[in-house]
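Bench notes, afternoon.
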Amino acid sequence: MPAAYARAFAPSEVAEHERVVARRGARLVYAEICVGSMGELVCVVAEDRPGLLALVTDALLVHGLSIRNAKVFCRKREDGEWEAVDFFQLQHSRGEVGAAIGSAELGAFLQTLSELVAEDMLAASRASAPPPASTAPVTRVYFDVEALRRDEAILLVEAPDTEGLLNAITNTLAAQDVHIRASEIRTESGVAHDRFELIGNDRQGLSALRLCDIQQAVHAALPKLARR
């Protein structure tokens, strides 16, 4: 685990996390509630993959949950595979701050996340085959997980290249009170692949809750554009 992980948790917490990671076994995704100095955290263990954080937030939204704080890490396993070990302090989306997440609620979230990861892996395995002519490009809005581990917020948007797309994204980011430090705009086969390096207008970093809000706001702006 990276040095930042050792600074964030006490030795007793590290020992508990090791047991949680071991309990993942061969499962695609595993999650468990851990209690420590920062209170109740949901530990999510999965194969490290692009867009994992977006899938986690999508699964949380399904069950009326959102991220209050998060710490995301990546470790290289003995078999050479990279594994994400992420910790989330959750809250109910309707403002129930501090309300405990029950085991049934956690199980439902884990089931949804597992299904989303499985679908994402299946889609990735088919990426080399050209999509049928009638299939519309998939819209995705997510933060680069590797950049988050470097304390950088890089928003990636993949969407059908529609007139006004860039304007909709930048207006939404402005409404979210964030500054675009750098951007890269690229279109291939009618699909926009846009990259935005973000920072708060106060030039401070963005919390996990702010990242979640930004992702949801940008994603919500895109379907409106497509219906015009």
